[in-house]
Specification:
The strands form 4 sheets. Strands 8-9-7-10-11-12-13 form a 7-stranded parallel sheet, sandwiched between helices. It has a 4-stranded antiparallel sheet with strand order 2-3-1-4, with helices on one face. It has a two-stranded antiparallel sheet with strand order 5-6. The radius of gyration is 23 Å and the shape is elongated. The chain contains 14 helices and 15 strands. It is α/β, with parallel strands linked by helices and 510 residues long. The longest helix is centred in the first third of the chain and has 21 residues, at 100-120. It has helices spanning 2-6, 12-19, 33-37, 45-59, 69-77, 100-120, 148-154, 215-218, 284-293, 325-340, 358-369, 453-471, 477-487, 505-509; strands at residues 82-87, 131-134, 140-144, 160-165, 197-200, 204-207, 228-233, 258-262, 310-315, 344-349, 373-377, 400-406, 425-430, 438-441, 448-451. Helix 9 links the parallel strand 8 and strand 9 (310-315).
C-alpha cells in the first residue's frame, strides 16, 4: 500500500488539510458574501479553505474569478503577494503574439499595479518593481500585490481574463514544511515477482498487463519509432542509464533520442529564476518515462510500451501535487515549450491539482492548439479523497483523461484511483490476487520496481498512442484519438466512470 500511494499521483495530504477544517468554527467572520465584503483584515487560511471546500463540494471546481475581492486579496497575503494575471481581449486570447496590442495591455496593467501599490505605501516615494515574471508563450504575468485596493482596481479592467494567487498554500503556511509535499515520490526498489512478467527477446521483462491490452501483439505492427513523447513530471534519474546513455539498448537500437530539461525553481522566493536542473529528485518522473518508453533491453529489466519512441523529459515540479508557485509556473512552461516544438506529438502529465490553475489551463490550450495529444492522470489518492472525482487538468476537454482499473471481469477502479465522467480511457494496472502494480525500471541502474495509480496508467496510454501515430505518421491528433476510441473495450458506449474503457493496442494499430 505504501508504494501505491507514494509512487502515484497522490493528493491525500491536500484534501485532508482542507477537509480537516470542516468542523472547526470560523472565528469572527461568518462565511457569507456580505460579511466578507466588509472584511478589513485578511481572512485566515482556514477561512479561505472553508470557502474553497464548499465550492468544490457544490460545483466540483473552484474558480478564483468567482471569489470576492477580499477572498482573493486574503489569499495573496498567504502566497507572498504573488498575483498571476491572465490578460487578453477575450477568454481565448491566451497566446502571447508579442503584438503591439498585447504589449500595450501588459504595460498598462503593470503601470496600474505600480501606481496602486505605491500610492498605498506611504513609506516609499519611489516605484518598486512589482513585475515578477512575464511568460514568453502566454498572455500571463506575475506581479507583487499587497493592497486590497489594487485587487479591486484590477478587477474593473476589461483586458483581464483572470486573477489568481500564485501558489496559494492550500495545505498550510508557505513557510511551513507541511506545505512542501512529497506526493508521489520514492526511491525504493523491489524485485519483480516471476508471475508478474514474461521474459522476451533480447532479455527484457514484459509487464503482466501488456498482453491484457494486446501491446505485445501490436509490436508486430508498430513500436513507436519516429514519435516523440514529452513527459512533464519530476525529471529523469541520472542513475538510470536505460533512460540515458543506454536508451538505445537491445531491440531499441534505432537511433532514437532522449532529451532532459529542467524548468523547476527550487526556491521559496518567487523572484528566483535558477532551476535545479533536469535530474529527478523524486523518482516519479523516472517511473513515468520508463512506463512509456523504456528500451526493450538485454539487461533483464522491464520494457516500456513504445520502446522505439523518442523521449523528452521535463523536470517541472518537485512532486506531483502542484501546490506551489514555482511548480505551477514550471509545469506551464514545460507544456508550452513542448507545445512549441514541431517534433513533439504526445505530451504525458501524471500530475495535477484539485481545482483549475489558470496558467496551466492556458498552457494546455496552447499546446492543444498546436495539435498535441495530451494525456493527463485522472487522479490517484486514498479512497477517502475519491469524492473529488477527476482532477485538473485531466478534467479539461482538451486533455485525454486516464485512470487505472483492476485486473478483473468488468470495471473497478484501482484502490487509489479516481473515476468520473471526464475519464476517456482506462489501463489495467492492479492485480486482482496480489494488488501488485506495473513493473518498471527503478531509479538506479540494474533495479526495477512496481508503479501504480492513474499515473502509470497515463504514461502507458501515451505509449499506446505513440504506437498508433508511428503506424500512421501522417494522421492528425483527431485521427489518432478517434482510432483509440473505436478500438477501446466499451466503444461506442461511454461509461460515466470509465470512459470508453480499456485500450486495445492491437486493434488500434491495425
Amino acid at each position: 500500500m505504501k508504494k501505491r500511494i507514494l509512487r502515484s499521483l497522490c493528493i491525500t495530504s491536500l484534501i485532508l488539510s482542507v477537509s480537516c477544517t470542516k468542523d472547526e468554527p470560523i472565528a469572527a467572520t461568518p462565511n457569507t458574501p456580505e460579511a466578507i465584503d466588509e472584511q478589513t483584515e485578511p481572512l485566515s487560511i482556514t477561512e479561505i479553505n472553508r470557502i474553497i471546500e464548499e465550492e468544490l463540494q457544490s460545483k466540483g471546481d473552484f474558480d478564483w474569478n468567482e471569489a470576492s475581492d477580499v477572498v482573493l486579496w486574503s489569499a495573496l497575503q498567504h502566497a507572498q503577494g504573488v498575483l498571476t494575471i491572465g490578460y487578453g481581449n477575450d477568454k481565448d486570447d491566451f497566446a502571447n503574439k508579442n503584438s503591439a496590442s498585447h504589449q500595450t495591455t501588459k504595460d498598462a496593467l503593470i503601470s496600474l499595479v505600480r501606481k496602486s501599490e505605491n500610492q498605498a505605501n506611504t513609506e516609499s516615494n519611489k516605484e518598486s518593481d512589482v513585475l515578477l515574471y512575464e511568460d514568453a508563450y502566454l498572455t500571463v504575468i506575475d506581479v507583487k500585490v499587497t493592497q486590497l485596493a489594487t485587487v479591486t482596481e484590477l478587477r474593473k479592467n476589461a483586458d483581464i481574463r483572470y486573477l489568481e494567487p500564485g501558489g496559494y498554500p492550500l495545505n498550510g503556511s508557505a513557510q511551513s514544511k507541511s506545505a512542501m509535499s512529497s506526493s508521489g515520490c520514492g526511491f525504493d526498489t523491489e524485485n519483480v515477482a516471476s508471475s508478474d512478467y514474461t521474459t522476451i527477446q533480447p532479455n527484457a521483462k514484459m509487464p503482466w498487463n501488456f498482453p491484457l491490452h494486446n501491446i505485445d501483439d501490436a509490436w508486430a505492427y508498430s513500436t513507436g519509432s519516429g514519435i516523440t513523447i514529452g513527459i512533464v513530471d519530476t525529471g529523469l534519474s541520472e542513475s538510470q542509464s536505460l533512460l540515458g546513455s543506454n536508451f538505445n539498448n537491445g531491440y531499441s537500437s534505432s537511433g532514437r533520442t532522449v532529451e532532459k530539461y529542467g524548468v523547476y525553481v527550487d526556491s521559496f522566493w518567487p523572484w528566483s529564476r535558477k532551476t535545479d536542473g533536469p535530474n529527478d529528485k523524486c523518482g516519479h518522473g523516472t517511473s513515468m518515462a520508463a512506463a512509456a518508453s523504456a528500451p526493450r533491453n538485454d539487461m533483464g529489466l522491464p520494457v516500456g510500451v513504445a520502446y522505439k519512441s523518442n523521449l523528452i523529459s521535463y523536470r517541472a515540479s518537485s512532486d506531483v501535487l502542484l501546490n506551489g508557485y514555482h511548480e505551477q509556473r514550471g509545469v506551464a512552461r514545460a507544456i508550452t515549450e513542448l507545445g512549441a516544438r514541431n517534433d513533439v506529438k504526445i505530451i504525458s502529465m501524471s500530475m495535477g491539482y484539485i481545482f483549475s490553475i489558470g496558467r496551466i489551463k492556458d498552457a494546455i490550450r496552447y499546446a492543444y492548439g498546436r495539435g498535441k495529444l495530451i494525456f493527463c492522470a485522472g487522479g490517484t489518492s486514498t479512497t477517502f479523497t475519491n469524492f473529488v472525482g477527476v482532477v485538473f487538468p485531466a478534467s479539461m476537454s482538451e486533455t485525454v483523461a486516464i485512470t487505472g482499473v483492476e485486473e478483473r471481469n468488468g470495471y473497478r477502479e484501482c484502490d487509489t484511483c479516481h473515476k468520473g465522467g471526464a475519464i476517456d480511457f482506462t489501463i489495467i494496472m492492479e492485480r486482482a490476487s496480489t494488488n501488485k502494480h506495473v513493473p518498471t525500471l527503478g531509479y538506479y541502474n540494474g533495479t526495477e520496481d512496481y508503479v501504480g495509480g492513474s499515473s502509470v496508467a497515463t504514461a502507458s496510454a501515451a505509449g499506446i498512442a505513440a504506437l498508433v501515430w508511428s503506424k500512421n505518421p501522417s494522421w492528425s491528433r483527431t485521427s489518432v484519438l478517434n482510432k483509440l476510441k473505436t478500438s477501446a473495450d466499451l466503444y461506442p458506449n461511454k461509461s460515466g466512470s470509465y470512459g470508453y474503457g480499456n485500450l486495445d493496442a492491437l486493434k488500434a494499430v491495425q
